[in-house]
Design a protein that fits this description.
alpha+beta; 2 helices; elongated
Length: 96
């Protein structure tokens, strides 16, 4: 995961690009607000509370590690998937 620094406003970025191209935001280039698209988020949660963040040598790069499930819990989930498959397809799972 990269440390991207502080959040920036997209409006500020748009105005800076317009000025960089030699135009004036507003009179020369109109900026339209279109609203949020379906499934678009204004804020994104990067880490869950269970994940562990590990710093490495590179200051702006972080590594996250998800907690590993207990083997018993994992096996219960696998058996659940197996039983669902049998119920839906009326077939046994073949192990090769």
């Amino acid at each position: 995961m990269f440390d991207m620094g502080e959040p920036v406003r997209i409006m500020d970025v748009a105005k800076e690009i317009i000025r960089h191209l030699g135009y004036t935001p507003g009179p020369d280039v109109e900026i339209l607000y279109t609203g949020i698209r379906r499934d678009e988020r204004l804020y994104e949660e990067i880490l869950t509370s269970e994940e562990i963040v590990i710093a490495i040598r590179q200051k702006k790069i972080l590594v996250s590690r998800e907690p590993q499930p207990y083997p018993e819990v994992f096996l219960v989930e696998i058996y659940g998937v197996e039983n669902t498959y049998r119920t839906i397809y009326h077939q046994e799972i073949v192990v090769k």
